[in-house]
Amino acid sequence: MMNGTIQCNKCGSKLVALSPRSVSRAYDKHRSQVSSKHRALNFLLVIGDCILVGLQPILVYMSKVDGKFKFSPISVNFLTEFVKILFAVVMLIFQARHQKVGEKNLLSISTFVQAARNNVLLAVPALLYAINNYLKFIMQLYFNPATVKMLSNMKVLVIAILLKIIMRRRFSIIQWEALALLLIGISVNQLKSLPEGSMAMGFPVTMIAYVYTLVFITVPSMASVFNEYALKSQFDTSIYLQNLFLYGYGAIFNFLGIIGTAIFKGPSSFNILDGHSRATMFLICINAAQGILSSFFFKYADTILKKYSSTVATIFTGIASAALFGHTLTMNFILGISIVFISMHQFFSPMAKVKDEIAVVSSEKMEAQRLRLKEDSFVNMAAGAAEDVTHRGGHDERQSLLPI
Q: Which of the residue ranges 144-153, 221-230, 317-326 has the most confident prediction, judged by mean pLDDT?
C-alpha cells in the first residue's frame, strides 16, 4: 500500500494513511459535499462519454476490410497513447503558467520526480489497458458493434465486486439489486453474430469468443478500479501530471508489443502507419478523447458512474450500427436497454444510499443544526440580558416619578 496524504479540494480534509478504507472514506466525504458545479461536470462527462464510447466500436467495425484489419491494432493503441501524451503535456504547460503565487512549480524536476514516485501504481492500469485495447479489436472479429458494447457492460458487476474488495467501497442492498438488474438487462439481449460450426485457429469460434469475452470483462474491470485507486490516492497531484505518467506507461507497453510483433512477424510489421485509413485516424482521435475523459471520471467521479454512462452509449451504438451497417435492433435489445435504464435509476436513487452514508450526512446536518441552535441561544441570552438591563433602568425611572 502507498503512504502519503490525500487532500480533498472540496472538503479540505487530509488522510495520512492511504489504505483502501481511507481512500473510500475520502471519496464518500467528497461525494457528500459536491456542489452544483460538480454535478454539472458529471453530467457533461456522462454526455461526452456516451458519444465517444458509442462511436468507438462503430469506427473499429468500419476499419475492417473483408472482415479483417489491414493494420496492426497495437499500432493504433500506441498512436492513441502518443496523442494523449501530447495533450497532457500541453495542458500541463497551460496549468503551470496559470499557477498561483507560492504553489509548487509543476514543471520543476523535483516536482516531476516526486510525483513519479507517488504515482508509480499507474503502471498497473496502464498495462491492463494495453491488453484491453488490443482485445477491443479482437472482439470485433467475432461480434457486431452493438453486441460488443452490450458484453462490455457486464464489466460493471465485476467492477462493483473489485471496488468492494480493493477500495472497500460500500453498496446498499438496493444498489446490489440494481447491478443484478443491469446484468439481467444485458443478458436479455441475445444477438447472435457467430455462424454455427465455424472454426478459427483449430477451435470452435464460439469457444474462442467466450474466452475473449471472459478476459474482455475482467481485465478492463481491474484496470478501471486500479486506475481510480491510483488517481484518488494522490488527489493533490495534478490530473494532467498523472495522465502523463499513465499514458507514458501505456505507450511503453504498446511499443513493447510492437517490438514483439516485429520479432514474430518480421521487420515489415514494425511500420506503425502501415494499413491505416481515415477511419483509423479518426478512431485514434476518438480513443484518445475517450481515454482523457475517463481519467476525469476516475479522479472526480467514480467507476460505477463511468460504466453506467458507457451502458447508455449502447443505445447510440445500436442505432448507429443499424443505420450504417443494417444490423437489426431486435425486441430483446430494446427490452434489455429498458431494464438497464431502470437499473440505472434504481442505483442512483437517494433511497439506495448506504445507511452509513445517510448517517454521516444526517449527523453533519444535526451538528450544523446544533451549532445554529447554540448560536441562537447565545443571541437570545444576550438579547435577554440587554432587555433585562433596559427593563431595570426603566423601572427605576418610573419609580422615581411616583409620589412618596
A: 221-230
Q: Which of 285, 302, 294 is nearest to 160 (CA)?
A: 302
18 pLDDT above the threshold of 90: no
- Please state the rounded mean pLDDT for residues 202-215: 63
Q: Do the beta carbons of residue 322 and residue 144 sit within 8 Å?
A: no
> Is there a contact between 330 and 248 (Cβ–Cβ < 8 Å)?
no
The residues, any chain, with a CB within 8 Å of residue 234's CB and separated by 6 or more, are 2, 4, 6, 115, 118, 119, 242
Long-range CB contact pairs, 55-58, < 8 A, 24+: 55/286, 55/316, 55/320, 56/136, 56/283, 56/286, 56/287, 56/290, 57/136, 57/140, 57/145, 57/146, 57/148, 57/149, 57/317, 57/321, 58/145, 58/317, 58/320, 58/321, 58/324
Specify the DSSP class assigned to residue 350.
G
How many Å apart are CA 178 and CA 174, to the nearest integer?
A: 6
143-147, 175-179, 187-191, 381-385, range with the lowest pLDDT:
381-385
CA 227/CA 154 separation, integer angstroms: 19
Nearest CA to 178 out of 294, 303, 304 is that of 304
pTM above 0.90, yes or no: no
Burial 130-153 (b: 16+ CB within 10 A, else e): bbbbbbbbebbbbbbbbbbbbbbb
- Helix, strand or coil for residue 135? helix
* Sign of CA pseudo-dihedral 257, 263, 269, 273: positive
Q: Which three cell numbers stand for residue 191?
A: 444477438
How would residue 71 be classed by pLDDT, with cut points 50, 70 and 90? confident
Is the Cα dihedral 302, 304, 305, 310 positive or negative? positive
| Radius of gyration for the chain, computed over Cα atoms and rounded to the nearest angstrom | 28
> Residue 332: CB partners within 8 Å, gap ≥ 6?
188, 189, 190, 191
- The beta strands (E) that lie in 95-230 are given as 199-200, 203-204
Cell of 109: 524536476
Q: Are 320 and 169 in contact (CB under 8 A)?
A: no
Above 60 in pLDDT, residue 304? yes
